[in-house]
Design a protein that fits this description.
Length: 255
């Protein structure tokens, strides 16, 4: 599959970093190497260790891959995998459907983009990379004419699942979607079997989604491969927090 680039006026840059779409097989391998470093090596996921040093699955060939590159070293230091409605039809499903029944969202499929496999190099986690990735996502969704963004945020179960359960139980009514957007985990992660006396630590990605106006659409799913509890989120672009919307407009320039 040939991956298209962002339009010229929508390639975002800072003095040190640039975000764009991967356009070559080598750039996709750079993405897969970074994902392997962050997910497999960084989280010590022994079950996913392989001699290639790449994190690869069957969805990669159908998706577009946002990359943030260090302009000085030319290293790929951040990435987000994005699936458009057209790519989902070609593939036959979204990645999230491996973990959730999305039946209640069927009426949104023609306007629904999926983002996943977000990761940032450990030396570049100051906030600049994720903001460039989000600006790139906004541009991508405008190009694909998508009104909704969905994705999963993984919370490690290395502590026995206490943080994941505490995070879920700490969510407020405003954090949850209306009933008509609820999804059902195919393999639920139990949030009731653990004590509630635990101060949750919210991952930056989950915090960013919630601050931007995304909804949590039900209980998390258990992902045994990544040893995580996965929270499904849906972001209608009309709910974008004004602070984020201003940032996107500044980054993107005139439409």
């Amino acid at each position: 599959m040939r991956l298209t680039t962002l339009p010229h006026d929508a390639t975002h840059a800072s003095p040190k970093l640039t975000v764009s779409l991967a356009t070559t097989p080598e750039e996709i391998r750079e993405v897969q190497r970074l994902r392997y470093k962050v997910f497999v090596e960084g989280l010590s996921l022994a079950a996913l260790v392989n001699p290639t040093g790449l994190d690869v699955d069957e969805f990669d060939a159908y998706c577009d891959h946002l990359i943030v590159r260090d302009n000085k070293t030319l290293l790929v230091v951040g990435t987000y995998r994005v699936m458009s409605p057209h790519a989902s039809r070609r593939m036959g499903s979204y990645y999230s459907e491996k973990e959730f029944d999305l039946g209640r969202l069927d009426h949104l499929r023609s306007r629904l983009a999926e983002a996943g496999r977000a990761c940032i190099h450990p030396d570049y986690r100051s906030g600049s990379v994720i903001m460039l990735l989000w600006a790139g996502l906004a541009t991508y969704m405008r190009r694909e004419r998508c009104d909704y963004l969905m994705g999963c945020v993984s919370v490690s179960l290395a502590d026995g699942g206490h943080n994941a359960a505490a995070l879920y139980n700490a969510l407020t009514r405003e954090n949850f979607s209306p009933a008509e957007y609820r999804v059902t985990p195919l393999t639920p992660f139990s949030v009731d079997a653990r004590g509630t006396v635990y101060a949750p630590i919210m991952p930056p990605l989950l915090k960013g989604y919630l601050r931007s106006g995304a909804w949590v659409c039900g209980e998390p799913a258990w992902d045994p491969d990544f040893h995580s509890a996965d929270f499904f989120l849906l972001l209608p672009l009309t709910r974008l927090d004004s602070r984020y919307a201003r940032h996107y407009r500044k980054e993107m320039g005139p439409a």
